[in-house]
Amino acid sequence: MKTADIFEFALDELAPLTGESWARYALGVLWVLGVDTGVDLLIDGRVPLGAGLSSSAALECSIATAINHLFGKGLSLEELARATQRAENEYVGVPCGIMDQSVSLMAKSGSALLLDCRDLSSENIPFLIAPQGLELLIIDTQAHHKLVDGGYAERRASCEKAVTELGITSLRDISVAEYAARQSELDPVTYIRGFHAVTEMKRVLDAVEALKANNFSRLGELLNQSHRSLRDDYTVSCPELNLAVDTALKQGAIGARMVGGGFGGSAIALIKTEHVKRCESFIQKAFSEAGFKNPRFFTSLPSDGARVISS
Fold first, then answer.
1. Which CB contacts under 8 angstroms, 24+ apart, belong to 37-42?
2. Domain coordinates of the chain in residue numbers?
């Protein structure tokens, strides 16, 4: 059994970027929520670290939920989402958005979450794949995933640059056709990264319609389009992720794509239940032949977000 890591910090000495360990994510939440009373936290997690599965948001939101309950702060889910995002932005130093924190708090069993990041309004979209004989296979490539090395920030900066140079408020305020028509106003790198963002937002809305219509073939097509754009336009994929996606599709997956911030981590594949084990076997074989680390596999269904469970 692995020995537990133990960290002790004085609350009045907390400052952004304290330390270099995962404890920063926990400390950032205490810092943002203004905890001024000593507290002991026992943290036990099973979300793989560095796998692109939002382990940092899961940690932040579980701690924020516990602190909110323990100290009776009365913060709403939206307020907790903004607080945990601030912890990661200002304390840890990752310029992440608010999607991971929001779904970690607002998710509902059996549903995907359609989130408007401007005001955090949301809609639960039925995502019932088991009755269709489908599973969501998660493929952890074990290629190290780290967002503090600058790659994620660089791509976000490209999108912000596109917004500024086009004179708009947000990339969501421009259609795919209009964005393409104004290509000459942007340098090639800025254009193609912004193009990914604009088309990805359109794919999200198309995916909602596909789910509402129970059209999983269409959903699979959108997953495939998304991965190609992440790979070729946003350039945040890696050989391990591409091999996982390509192999899953060859083994009958309806759709597959990388997930998370990129540069490693995990891919997902929407696949018939009876094909899961065969798909895992072929991916393992492909990774071995390519000299990659042995991948890990999980299957998952949408579940409720962070909550307090009374003993």
1. 37/11, 37/71, 38/11, 39/67, 39/70, 41/66
2. 11-106, 127-300
Q: Are 244 and 284 in contact (CB under 8 A)?
A: no
Q: Please identify which residue in the block is written with the tokens 């990805």.
A: 200
Return mean pLDDT, the chain: 92
Cα–Cα dist 250/54, whole Å: 27
- Reference 90, options 25, 154, 38; nearest CA is 25
At 9-60, the pLDDT tens digits run 888 888 886 666 788 999 999 999 999 899 999 998 888 777 777 889 999 9
pLDDT in tens, 197-210: 999 999 999 999 99
In sequence order, the 6+-apart residues with CB closer than 8 A to the CB of 95 are 89, 152, 153, 156
CA distance 286 to 294: 10
Whether residue 146 has pLDDT greater than 70: no
Segment 244-256, tens digit of pLDDT:
999 999 999 999 9
Cβ proximity of 45 and 55 under 8 Å: yes
Fold type of domain 11-106: Ribosomal Protein S5; domain 2 (3.30.230)
How large is the average pLDDT for residues 221-250?
97
Alpha helices in 87-187 (DSSP H): 99-106, 151-166, 176-181
- CB-CB contact of 158 with 190 (8 Å): yes
Instruction: State which fold the 127-300 domain adopts.
Output: Alpha-Beta Plaits (3.30.70)
Which residues carry out catalysis? 100
